[in-house]
Amino acid sequence: MGGLSVSTPHIKRKSYTWLYFLLPSIAIMLLFFIYPILLTFFYSFTNLALTGEAAKQLKFIGFDNYIRMFQDPTVRISIWNTLVFLIGSAVIGQQVLGFLIALLMKHKSKVFRRIIGTVVLAGWVTPEIVCALCLYSFFGDEGTLNAIISFFGISEVTWLFTVPMLTVIVGNIWHGTAFSMLVFQAALDDVPNEIEEAAVVDGASRLQILFRITIPYIKETITTNMMLVTLQTLGVFGLIYAMTGGGPGTSTTTLPIFMYNQAFVNFQLGYGTAISLLLLLIGIILSLFYIRSLKE
Asked: What are the extents of the domains in the chain?
């Protein structure tokens, strides 16, 4: 009995030693993630501003910022633009294009995969603002695209004013597709060749192998990549701001652009933080949807 009474406290102390190794990570999480979110949540209920009477004294104004937000027609436009940009550049663009590139590179030689991979990765490793400037030069009135189409006798188009949303969608696809390509390339390399060879022997076509074997085999990777690309695309700011500034008008004003304009152009920080929480809520809802799909 004496031996048991001595060893029991030792076992309990040893079982909690893992907590000491997590303390630095917990502290960083609290300081740089939890605390800013709580502070943002608090400021969204205040009249925090950088100019005017509100800048002199911070006041609690309740749900006034949220009432103003849902009555503002520009917010509804920004939500719609955000969803269009998200679906066009992330769900359809990066996801589908990244998968197709990875699929085409499967079973190819190392030289071919290295060349194509380098070309696709060039857009991903380039800083966002540099990508925006390159795309602005490409889609500008005197840019590369108009020079190409004018060479074939086609009249020039003001791309950034005629189809501004399409230009930023194409830009984000070029900038972010490489991430999806790398994820899908790793997943496709793990698909057993024996299964595909057996399907070929049984008379299955390439499309049947793709939709009945390959895609179901990597469905978890598809869902995970979709979640990561979605959350990344929701926060895209520099690319759109440098290319169009959210215009013309509000045609490319997404929630990050609108939040920035209200907080740092109009100096209404309280209203801007309320918009940022709306963006955070959309990200949480989409994440929960993807997590549930992944479990199923």
From this structure: 73-295
Beta-carbon contacts of 42 under 8 Å, excluding residues fewer than 6 positions away, are: none
Distance separating alpha carbons of residues 236 and 29, to the nearest angstrom: 23
* Predicted structure pTM score: 0.86
The helix (run of H) or strand (run of E) holding residue 155 is: none
The fold of 73-295 is MetI-like fold (1.10.3720)
Helix (H) / strand (E) element for 119: namely helix 110-125
Q: Any idea which residue has 């550049």 for tokens?
A: 89
Rounded to whole angstroms, the Cα distance separating 293 from 106 reads 27
State the Cα–Cα distance between residues 263 and 243, nearest whole angstrom: 20
Give the count of beta carbons closer than 10 Å to the beta carbon of residue 225.
23
Q: Which residues pair with 46 in a beta bridge?
A: 60
In single-letter form, the type of residue at position 275 comes to I
Q: Which residues contact 238 (CB under 8 A, 6 or more apart)?
A: 128, 129, 132
> pLDDT digit string (tens) for 131-182?
999 999 999 888 899 999 998 988 999 999 999 999 999 999 999 999 999 9
Tens of pLDDT along 208-245? 988 898 998 999 999 999 999 999 999 999 999 999 99
